Amino acid sequence: MDCIFCQIVQGCRPAAKILENENVLAFLDIAPVAFGHALVVPKKHYARLEDIPIDELSAVISVVQKIGPAVQAAAAAAGYNVSLNNGPAAGQVVPHLHFHLIPRRTGDGLQLWPQNRYDEGGLEKMAQAIIAALG
Ligand code: 5GP
Ligand code: ZN
């Protein structure tokens, strides 16, 4: 078992746990973007979003929804980001599906996304390409 989040789930690796139920574990990120940064994982190992059965994903997102306001309150924040890095190219370092819950304050300076512009017709073309990929 070389997955560090499986080790945390199994109790072989320490973690500051926040909430645990039959299918899901939430704990604090060891290197937080902001204090209170939490991770929510399914207890079973799935690498990517598209791998997890929808009922287990539902259990995971239920915990995200439940702990979000508590993380916000405990961190004295005004909001929070929920994110999931899906695949190494998207910044996923730990290959065990997890949601990040990152407390935010107005004006905290954290810039998440650059914004681009489509060329003329590019927006519609991209929508059609995605629809085609859906099959
Ligand atoms: P990723 O880049 O895969 O989306 O995020 C992985 C996250 O796991 C990172 O934010 C990192 O700080 C956190 N992390 C890595 N190793 C450990 C660990 O041993 N314990 C905890 N609690 N978090 C970890
Ligand atoms: Zn794992």
UniProtKB/TrEMBL annotation:
CDD domains: HINT_subgroup (cd01277). InterPro entries: HINT, Histidine_triad_CS, Histidine_triad_HIT, HIT-like, HIT-like_sf. The active site is at residue 98. One of its GO terms (molecular function) is catalytic activity. A motif (Histidine triad motif) lies at residues 96-100. Residues 4-111 form the HIT domain. GO terms for biological process: nucleotide metabolic process. Pfam families: HIT. PROSITE patterns: HIT_1, HIT_2. It comes from the Bacteria. This is HIT family protein. It comes from Candidatus Falkowbacteria bacterium CG23_combo_of_CG06-09_8_20_14_all_49_15.
